[in-house]
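Lecture 7 notes: from sequence to structure.

We start with a single chain of 721 residues. Read the sequence below before looking at the structure.
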Amino acid sequence: MQSPLPPPGRFRGAVAVGLVATALLAAGTTPALASGPAARVTATAGVAAPSWAYRTVSGYLPSEEAPLEATATSDDGSVVLYQARVDGGSDASLLLRDTRAGTTTLVDHAHGLATTADQEAETFALSGDGSTVAFTSRAGDLLGTDVPNGADVYVTDAHGGAVRAVAHPGVPDRDVREVSLSADGSRLAMVVGHAEGVSVLVVAVATGATLYRYDGDYATRSVRLSGDGRTVVYGATADGTSALQVVDVASGTVVASLPEWSGDGPQVDRTGTRVVYRAGEGPVPPGGWFGPARFLVWDRTHPADAGTEVLAPVGLRPTGPVVSADGSRLLLTAAPSDGGSIPSAAYAVDLPGGATQLVAGGDPDGGATGTGAYAGSLSADGSAVTLWLDGSIVSATRSSTSAGAPTWPGGASLSATPRSSTAVQLDWPAAAGDLKGYEVSVDGTVVATVAPDKRSTTVTAPDATAPHTYAVTAVSTSGARGTALSADARALAPLAVTRGAAGTLHLAFPLPAGTTGITGLRVLRAPGGQQADHPAVDPASYAKVADLPATATSYDDTGLAALTYYGYRVDALHADGSTSPLSESTVERTDLPDAVPVLVSGVGSTSATVTWPPAPAGTPLTAWRVERQDSGGAWATVASLSDASRTSYADTALTPGTAYAWRVSAVLGAGWPVRSWATATAATTRGRASRASRSTRRGSWAGAPCSSAGTSSSAPPTSPG
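Now the structure, written as tokens:
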């Protein structure tokens, strides 16, 4: 849905507070509205107390400043498009917040750069599925080839894809004034001003093919496309009479011409069955400045009827309509009709009965509902409202409450922080009232009950492949339930770290399904020390190791110190340069090289030299242990060398003509056990052995390899002593 409101910087000083009120009515769930000019639904202000939980949507981009009021919301309420100034610029930029993915993306960025365009978007739209953004702009640097001859229309993937222009063939010197998208983003309607007059076009986004075209002398800025893309609604003038046109896109047939249209932007439901539009004002009440706003709901199934009339709350002055896609709720932003200066407030009006509930604003003291609210857009079922509230873009979620239920403080919100691939930490403020405790739910299922003095708990995430909705509800001792605070969060992706070659650790981090809005990955590492019995990783010591493409799923970290622990995590990189946690943290250690045979050289009649590989840099080595086996007997230590740089040992006082074997072990510090470093190699000294020596050798080492004098051979490896 797209906002009918102009950016607030252009009207904030005026009394024009936006009415957000329409009837986008889904097939099968349409309220049973009476038809005919006498049928009325009158909204009554202040019928129900606030029961909305607020969550701030704006302010996550590091360079973001105060946002403007205009917003657009996806059908499920999880994706919000709004305008805000960034990097101190004077023009507003389009920002898209995906509350499930936890990302904010700059949409209208300069060509090839993560910087703002040289002019701001004038109007914009978001497809119902949240996949596509369309906007109009006079910027000259969006594509690098822009021609500044008026406002063009652009589309982009909602998560930071390349911006591209949408063709509007046969319309010279164009000046696109308004855009509207179908629910799946495949069709786009636009109003284009040009030298010959005004055109209304419906085009296929992928190909630019024209599906419908109207040319005339005048048309309103406003155009609306039904969710299925089959019906377009716009204002036109014929024979001096203005009327709202309801047109079938495929045939070009005018289904209805609604003459009571007052000029404000209309709304149409997904199937083009119902249209809601402003039809002027009712009588001015005594002492008032304006009459109540009148809105008509035209129903295609009753084309001869003038439509059901919906009156705004008495004493309030709303303008322009927006409604939930299922037709169950209108949203009004209203100020006093007598021109008073009390803060504006947003009201939700249930159809068909007209019961009205304060959503936010209207409190001069800035209490639980805030001071000033300007409504912008609704989710499809009306349960989520996106609005401007006291300088922030806020998502308000409706909850039912019961008498005596605990209440949250003003601006209360739930924080959902992923801690691992299986756990999410929830934090919330204290609720007021006769409190029994808090119910914690995941995707609507209660999973835990928390004591009233607790403000935090950790719950098990169903999986790490998709976001889930977490909620906390305060419950009184009588069982009355308050408004639920909710937040969406995705558990951290699992991170597998395995030991490779010496000094190498291999990271594997497959991305969760549906991960979007990521321009790259950042691998971070923190040292964990060499103590064998416990790694000591400081979370504050993580530092960047490498930046990888967004499609990467593994990384080899090489050149690491031996027998050392390291902590790893992977963060997501976004187009604006910010990062967010993507994977859980995992700790693993490096290893020592595999043992190799001892090299025996310089074998004489009474001596030989054994050599082994050096230890890698950083090995916590305290000594080399050189052991010898005489003629197949027991192993005995012949040297303990504390010089870690040593790689050889000359063994003397050997017996001529005798078979020996040598092996080397690394004696380690920091609690590590002795490690086999160089396995056994056998050699026989030169000369003739004594009779006793030959007898011993035959009796106790029969069959052992025995080389000729001055050579060596390998004996079976043995474990270190």
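The CA atoms of residues 531 and 670 lie 5 Å apart. Keep this in mind for problem set 3.
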